[in-house]
Input
Amino acid sequence: MATVTNLTNPYFEIDGTDYTEQCSTCSVVSTIEALESTTFGDSARNYTAGLQANEITATLMLAYGASEIEADLAALIGTTFNVVVGATGSSPAADNPVYTLTGCYLESYTGINGDFGTLSTVDLTFRGGALTRAIAP
Output
């Protein structure tokens, strides 16, 4: 029987700082590149696992000030750091996988993004690095 789990209390951390309160959407994508390993004697194409190409995307509410998220993100562009995402909290468990993207890279971000009468948000893409999945403390 299929079950559905709603993200009722997710966890989102960038470079050791908890941004759960600012995060409105998040996705974790893990890709293992397919390398063709077909040889002359094969009757069909064959593939083997290549490198990981991992990515975490998120939408966060922007806040401005010396110790706010906009200043933190500005300092992270072009550097490597870790991002942690938990489905329903920060403690790994069978019903709460916690993904850690170690050594990911933030290529760019939009420091000012908003319209009159709306909340300012920023869409972020964290690329590269090794992705691990924890289901036990």
Remarks:
- Helices lie at 69-76.
- The mean pLDDT is 91.
- The first helix runs from residue 69 to 76.
- The first strand starts at residue 11 and ends at 14.
